[in-house]
Please model this.
Amino acid sequence: MTTDFDTLAQQLRDEGHKLTQPRRAILHALLDSSKPLSPAEIQERGQTYYADLGLVTVYRTLELMADIGIARAVHLADHCHGYALATPGHTHHVVCKHCHGVTEIVGCELGAFLASVADRTGYTITGHWLEISGICPTCQQNLPESKH
Amino acid sequence: MTTDFDTLAQQLRDEGHKLTQPRRAILHALLDSSKPLSPAEIQERGQTYYADLGLVTVYRTLELMADIGIARAVHLADHCHGYALATPGHTHHVVCKHCHGVTEIVGCELGAFLASVADRTGYTITGHWLEISGICPTCQQNLPESKH
DNA sequence: GATATAAATGAAAAACACTTTCAATACGGA
DNA sequence: TCCGTATTGAAAGTGTTTTTCATTTATATC
Model:
C-alpha cells in the first residue's frame, strides 16, 4: 500500500511512457509532499532533483499522470470557475458531465461519515464539499449509446 | 425556502452593503440560471439587466456574495490548481484550513448516499468528489484559542 | 427634495495561469 | 552504439483574474 518511487516509475513505463529526468523529478516532488502542490510549486521543488525542469513539462506530466491514475487533481478553494446561488440549508451538487447542468441535492446525510473521519484523523471538521458527477436524465436520452 | 430577489437584496443591505444596479443585475442573472455560471457568463447575462455591467464588478460582487453566503463557488472539473499523488483505492481528502496539509481518508462509505441521489435525481452517477476541511491536530495545538 | 460622503464602479493596465508551437534533446529498443 | 520517436524547454500566444485610479452612485442627513 506504500506508494514508492519505483512502483510509480514502473507504472509509467508499463503504460508505454518514458521515464525521463523531468518526470523523475516531478514524482519525487509529489512523493516528498504531504499536501497537494500547484504546478508552480511542483516545478520549484522538482528543480532540486532536476535543475532545468520547466513549467510546461510539469503541466504536461501532471496531465499524463492524472490520465494514468498516478496523480489526481485536487480542487482548491480559490480560483473556482463557477458560481451559483447558495441555497439556504445545506446542499450538494450533481453536475452533468455532458451538458454541465447542475441539480442541487437537498439534505445532507454525511454526519456519521464525517464523525468517523474526525475520529480517525484527529481533525476538527469545519466544513465539507461534495460534488457528484454523472449524466442527467435529459442527456441520457439524447446520447442513448454513445460511449467514450 | 424559495430564494427570491428581495430576500437576497435585503441580505446584502443587512450586511451593510449598497444595493447597486450592477449588483441587482448579477443577482438576477444568478436567479435566472439553473446551473453555475462563470464570471464571464454572469456578466453577459447580467447585461440584459444593466447594460454597462463590467467584468471587474462581477468578480468583486461574487467575492462579496460568497463572503456573505449568498453565493457559492462551484468547483468545476477543469482548471484545478493542485495535484497530489493518487493513493491506490478510493480516497477522500481532509484539508487543514490553517496549514493546508492534506490527510487522505481511505475507504469510501458513500455508496448508499449516492444510490439515493441517483434515485432522486434520475442521474447516472459516474463519479464523486468529496473534500473535507478542518483543522489538523498539529494546528489545533499551535492555535489553541485563536478564532476566525 | 437637496446635499455630502463613503462605497462602488468601469476602464486600462498589470499580473498571473495555462496552452500551443517548434526546434533541439534524450530515452530506450535494436 | 546508433536511431527513431517521445519528450523537452523556450518563446509566444491566449484567456483569466487582480490592481489601480478617477468617476459615479447609493444612501444617510439635513
